[in-house]
Amino acid sequence: MKKTLNILLFLVTILSSKAQDFSGITNKKDTSFTNLSALKSAQRDGYDVKIAKSKNAHLVKSEFDKIYCQTDEYTLTVDIFSPKKRLEASLPAIIFIHGGGWRTGDKSQHHELAKELASKGYVVFTPAYRLSTFALFPAAVIDVKTSIRWIKEHPKEFGINTERIALGGYSAGGQMAAFIGTTSGLDRYENGACKINQDTEVNAVIDVDGILAYIHPESGEGDDRRSKSAATSYFGYSKEENPDLWIEGSALKHVNEFSPPILFINSSVNRMHAGREDYIKLLDKHDIYSEIHTFKAPHVFPMMDRWFEDTVELIDTFLIKIFNQ
User: Fold this and answer.
1) Strands (E), 186-324
2) HSE on the CB side for 4, CA within 13 Å?
3) How far is the C-alpha of 205 from the C-alpha of 210, rounded, in Å?
4) pLDDT for 160-211, tens place per residue?
5) pLDDT tens for residues 45-60?
6) 190 by DSSP, 3-state: which?
């Protein structure tokens, strides 16, 4: 009798719950967020800036659109930047995830950052991933995790040390970097279509203006009054319809004693680091190192010349500290 009642309650819950919204899946690329649109946004806010350019690109070799996962339905690629002259046979690696609200943006947006970091002695990867116009959460997470596996599968080809891998990202990419950094080994986020026998553990995280929690007093995510928010499109549910999924998709939910050290580089837009202080408190309980640096700057600062060199310097200094411990 009790078993029958539980089944009935389960069925009632399923039937009464709102179905996931797949209407945002257009299978078309959203090109609304670019470095040019970021520049115009910063200029509208009164900043005298230009799109940043690497001063040391001539010291770097580049490879574009290397396939890291291919299925009958989609192909995922990564761009790779490495120093022409190597001081070590195996260099530290940085995997940097682009932003764009999980719905737009492109891996090419951080090529200048990747080149400048590569000139300092890193091999830098900028992976593409399925945006929410193609697949809902956790597809993007699984894709980036697959790219980590693929990179670890080819250490000699890329000349990298797989014990010195940093995962970074900007905005939505920063959110994903923190989330992936805290969910290594969780089966529900590890089972991609491309099977590669490597783990997805990383040794450091760089979160550039990415939130740590969607549902949080500091968060601006989930305001669907004027139009569907980026996070609602990402999850296929509003936060009212499925708050548990929004909490589950947050790095703050998963931070633990095995989480890697993390660098936060933030703008002065407070909602872009929602949950950061709570995240750091949990890290502190486990003696895990973290740093915060905040610019008086708009959200799009990493692509702008005014903050570009300082951003590169902060990343380099942090990784030297972490990788040399």
Assistant:
1) 204-208, 262-266, 290-294
2) 1
3) 11
4) 999 999 999 999 999 999 999 999 999 999 989 999 999 999 999 999 999 9
5) 999 999 999 999 999 9
6) coil
Query: pLDDT per residue over 258-301, tens digit each?
Result: 999 999 999 999 999 999 999 999 999 999 999 999 999 999 99
The helix (run of H) or strand (run of E) holding residue 125 is: strand 123-127
Could you please report the per-residue DSSP string of 221-235? TT--SSS--HHHHHH
Determine the Cα–Cα distance for residues 215 and 46; give it in Å rounded to an integer: 31
Task: Check pLDDT > 50 for residue 14.
Answer: no
Residue 172 near residue 101, CB atoms below 8 Å: yes
Q: Which helix (H) or strand (E) holds 77?
A: strand 75-83
Q: Point out which residues pair with 299 in neighbouring strands.
A: none
- C-alpha torsion 276→282→285→286, nearest 10: -100
Which residues does 221 contact at the CB level (< 8 Å), separation at least 6?
Answer: 211, 214, 215, 229, 230, 231, 239, 246, 274
* Eight-state DSSP code of residue 216: S
Q: Half-sphere exposure (CA, 13 Å, Cβ side) for 217? A: 2
Closest listed residue to residue 76, CA positions, set 169, 21, 150, 178: 150
